[in-house]
Amino acid sequence: MALDNETLTLLLDAVRRFVDERLVPAEDELASTGVMPEDIVREMRELGLFGLSISPDFGGLGLNMEEEVRVVFELGQTSPAFRSLAGTNIGIGSQSIVMSGTDEQRNHYLPLLASGELIGSFALTEPEAGSDAMSLRTSAVRDGDHYVLNGTKRFITNAPIAGLFSVMARTSQERGADAISCFLVEAGTPGLTLGKPDKKMGQAGALTCDVVFDDCRVPASSLLGGKEGTGFRTAMRVLDKGRLHISALCVGIAERLVRDAARYALERKQFGQPIADFQLVQAMLADSQTELYAARCMVLDAARKRDRGENTTLEAACCKLYASEMVGRVADRAVQIHGGAGYMAEYAVERFYRDVRLFRIYEGTSQVQQVVIARELLKAHR
């Protein structure tokens, strides 16, 4: 454990209170306005939520994987947009710098990311490059002491408010990981422009938009690690961690949904009795609780394996596949238990039903997870 048990318990209690007392009451306003309240952002910074995975040497909490997923279980009890604000700072936006950044890049950016003073954004997806990330077209051409970036990134989380973009770009026209590098590009750099915020099915308040590079000149020192061809491999190395993080988020949301559905079933009466007395309603609650428990156990097991230094590519993909599909089924049952009320925006289950649909798509679609699982399984048995 990175923290002693007493400190971890205090942290989890503090996050739980913050979620219950500050975030849950702010859900409706966030959903209707799409604007994150500044006082909540400030409190998230004070709690250290932007630096969960960043070393204390750079101002973070330095949690290991098990501790991180346990915090995310708590953050998942509310709108996922709150967690999304800090998600890149916790995940690939910071961990790529931790793993492959130069000392100068670490010393400059990690304290800013850990404090939340700087919001990170990871720019990989393009109009023609989603699951097939190798086909990205954004180019970075060396020009003296600079690189010139050209291309368009799409659906980029936190882009409208980001101060730092981790940009995957092609430094060679050859096919393969060696052709792709990562650049740390600060907002406001000439040649970097943003599209209009996307209108999405759910997760209001989690902002995304296009990021366009038009002869965007960046100093050679912005190349991650100071070496071409390492960006894509670094991104793949931190994917296991990101997938476990999202899996934990799915578990947290499922816990909220099961709780809301159970409470509604106990309160709502039909045929002269609470609907919780009807076995078919009980069956939906039982199935949801069972799948939730299975996903929670999977995530904790995989996190502990990662903390022991084991390769968890297979386990992380299993968790992401199962947990994201699980929370979709739980949300569907929660709406069903609420009946007509579940279709109304007055109840949180309507919003969560739309919010959770994204988890089967980003950080690798369910189909990509199946490919990874099969590849790792067959590799182990060859």
| Widest sheet, order of strands | 2-3-7-6
Low-confidence stretches: none
The computed structural class is alpha+beta
Radius of gyration: 21 Å
Q: Bin the helical content.
A: 40-55%
Written overview of the protein:
- With 382 residues, the protein is of the alpha+beta class.
- It is 51% helix and 14% strand.
- The protein has helices spanning 5-23, 27-33, 38-47, 65-75, 80-90, 92-100, 103-115, 231-267, 279-307, 313-338, 348-355, 366-381, and strands at 120-123, 139-143, 146-157, 164-170, 180-186, 192-194, 208-219, 269-270, 273-274.
- A four-stranded antiparallel sheet has the order 2-3-7-6, with no helix packed on it. Strands 1-4-5 form a three-stranded mixed sheet. A two-stranded antiparallel sheet has the order 8-9.
- Strand 2 and strand 3 (146-157) form a beta hairpin.
- Helix 4 runs antiparallel to helix 9 (279-307), helix 8 packs antiparallel against helix 9 (279-307) and helix 10 (313-338) runs antiparallel to helix 12 (366-381).
- The longest helix is centred in the middle third of the chain and has 37 residues, at 231-267.
- It is globular and about 80 Å long.
- 48% of the residues are buried.
